[in-house]
Write a structure and sequence with these properties.
31% of the residues lie in helices and 16% in strands. It is of the alpha/beta class. The chain folds into three domains: 197 residues, Metal-dependent hydrolases (TIM Barrel, Alpha-Beta Barrel); 236 residues, Rossmann fold (3-Layer(aba) Sandwich); 38 residues, no CATH class.
Length: 575
């Protein structure tokens, strides 16, 4: 049965509907053999339409293990969404023979779990995508016992391999299913698992009722550990391991480890994701971690890079919209989703690096956390500019809707008191239909359309209180009220029929920029609603071309001049 049918059937079952707080649904993906496009489409459908709680994958499907490079786009997307991924064990390719005629779940499942997770570790998947929440069965199979051995062999016998993340450290990032009888030797290694990552998931369909242990056939020798009558598992072999890499068993009463959470990794030192090539001449690094805010999920960014690159590249940072409370970092809006190649690939193909970051949404943190995130991104770009081939002195910020608000606020406050020295040189800023003065939204909307006292408005969720109740934070978060003569040039595009963010909001920012002597191009797009709805396709093309032309002029090197269009992007007149 296709994955779509299975998922729709699971989401529509009476149990899930009747008890939404007790039962959920894990979606299946069309992975055997790897159907990457189908899997990505099913991920979007499962989470956005069926409201799945996670996905389930097998340790191996048709000979393909989870560390296989072909699965990287799927795991990257799951990591970007912070998805829970339940890993279900399978038998190895040679399971029919290796099981020696005995039940394969008895031994083969636990070793195939270890094999698949080891493959993930060597592929660097867990390090590249820290948002991935992998729940592994049977306490990780044999992996907790083998972790030290894997580390030792990777260092002693694989010196030519790329650096492999520490296996023991990666173990602490997984979540463990302890359902069913668990061998005492694995439980004694619970210190390696890390507190808070042990799950008790029901496994009633596979686990038989516990049976009493068999009577011993002989009297235990003094050196043996007699089996307690209340323990249904046989006692383990007391003989010491002959493997010098085998770590000594942790006493059963040892405290959980670590006592203190480990420090987050330095994003400037984390490995970059493996590249994909979504279009000719374009290299895509999807899901690079640029910041790990305290108490929050890791923040990731996508990088669309020209290939080959001609010297250090100019950079466009695109900030997604969504009312500060939702949105995807690689989505410039519904009018562009059918473009092939898409807007980012077009810019990259013309010689511009495009950076699309996550930021903390209003349900995760209040203003100015989002501003802090974008500043952290600019620092990360500066720190890794040499490695990525970027020019930190040629940066343009670009955002749509709430993302345009954040892009403008970032561009206007980089040199503000308390913000520190600018990490990069921002040459310009483009906003599409962005709110710019949160203190005057009620004036700009038709009467009764916007209530500044509403604590549930998008703006209130960003600020932590309704704009009328928090005038100080509302002013602080208003780009039109943060303009200084040091601001970079701006391009403001806004539809005249915008029902969500009135066009008057862009008027207010344009007026403030002109009063401060800052170059500004303002384009009022006739007939356009929010998200460029209501525009003909050719008009949408012209909006993008106008944006690309601004990027061309302001990312050009000083020696390139501004009339020759050195990036080769076709510009246009005002829509």
């Amino acid at each position: 049965m296709p994955a779509r049918e299975v998922n729709e059937d699971g989401a529509g079952t009476g149990t899930v509907r009747a008890h939404p707080g007790r039962f959920g649904m894990f979606a299946s993906l069309p992975l055997p053999p790897p159907d990457i496009d189908g899997a990505l489409a099913e991920i979007a459908y499962a989470f956005e339409e069926l409201h799945a709680d996670g996905v389930v994958v097998r340790t191996r499907s048709h000979g393909v293990y989870l560390g296989d490079p072909r699965l990287e786009p799927v795991l990257a997307e799951l990591g970007r969404r912070g998805a829970v991924v339940s890993v279900h064990p399978a038998s190895p390719v040679c399971g029919e023979r290796s099981a020696l005629g005995r039940p394969r779940p008895m031994v083969e499942f636990v070793f195939d779990t270890a094999r698949s997770l080891t493959d993930l570790n060597f592929a660097g998947t867990l390090a590249h995508h820290p948002g991935l929440k992998a729940a592994v069965p049977h306490c990780g199979g044999a992996l907790p016992v083998l972790a030290g051995r894997i580390d030792g062999f990777s260092r002693l016998f694989m010196p030519g391999e790329a650096p492999v993340p520490d296996a023991v450290a990666q173990l602490r990032r997984l979540h463990y299913d302890l359902a069913g009888p668990v061998a005492r030797r694995v439980v004694r290694h619970r210190a390696r698992l890390g507190a808070g990552h042990r799950l008790a998931l029901p496994d009633h369909r596979r686990r038989p009722d516990p049976v009493p242990p068999p009577r011993p056939l002989r009297k235990p020798m003094p050196s043996e550990d007699p089996m307690p009558s209340e323990d249904p598992m046989p006692s383990e072999d007391p003989m010491p391991s002959e493997d010098p890499m085998q770590e000594e068993a942790v006493p059963q009463d040892a405290p959980s480890f670590p006592a203190q959470p480990p420090a987050p990794p330095d994003p400037a030192r984390l490995p970059l994701p493996p590249p994909a090539r979504p279009a000719p001449g374009v290299r895509l690094l999807r899901g690079a971690v640029y910041a790990v805010p305290d108490g929050s999920r890791p923040l990731e960014t996508d990088l669309w890079l020209p290939e080959p690159a001609d010297g250090p590249l100019p950079v466009v940072v695109f900030v997604h919209g969504g009312g500060w409370r939702t949105g995807l970092r690689d989505d410039p809006g519904p009018r562009f989703r059918h473009w092939l190649p898409g807007p980012f690939a077009r810019l990259a193909g013309a010689g511009v690096a495009v950076v699309c970051p996550d930021y903390r949404l209003s349900g995760e943190a209040r203003h100015p956390a989002q501003l802090d995130d974008l500043r952290a991104l600019l620092v990360w770009l500066r720190d890794r500019a040499g490695e990525l081939g970027l020019d930190p002195d040629r940066v343009v910020l670009w955002g749509e809707s709430a993302g345009g608000h954040l892009a403008a606020l970032t561009a206007l406050t980089l040199g503000a008191a308390g913000a520190g020295a600018p990490a990069v040189t921002v040459r310009g800023c483009v906003t599409w239909y962005a709110p710019t003065d949160l203190t005057r939204l009620a004036e700009d909307h038709p009467p009764g359309r916007f209530d500044p006292r509403d604590p549930a408005s998008r703006e209130a969720l960003l600020l932590g209180a309704a704009p009328a109740a928090a005038p100080g934070p509302a002013r602080d978060a208003s780009p039109a009220l943060r303009v200084t003569p040091a601001a970079p040039p701006f391009l403001l595009l806004h539809g005249t029929e915008d029902e969500l963010v009135p066009c008057a909001q862009s008027d207010r920012l344009a007026t403030a920029l002109r009063a401060a002597g800052v170059p500004v191009e303002q384009v009022r797009v006739p007939g356009a609603n929010h998200l460029w709805l209501g525009l003909a396709e050719e008009e949408v093309e012209r909006v993008f071309a106008r944006t690309a032309g601004f990027v061309t002029r302001h990312c050009a090197r000083e020696t390139d001049g501004q009339e020759d269009n050195p990036l080769g992007i076709r510009s246009s007149e005002e829509p």
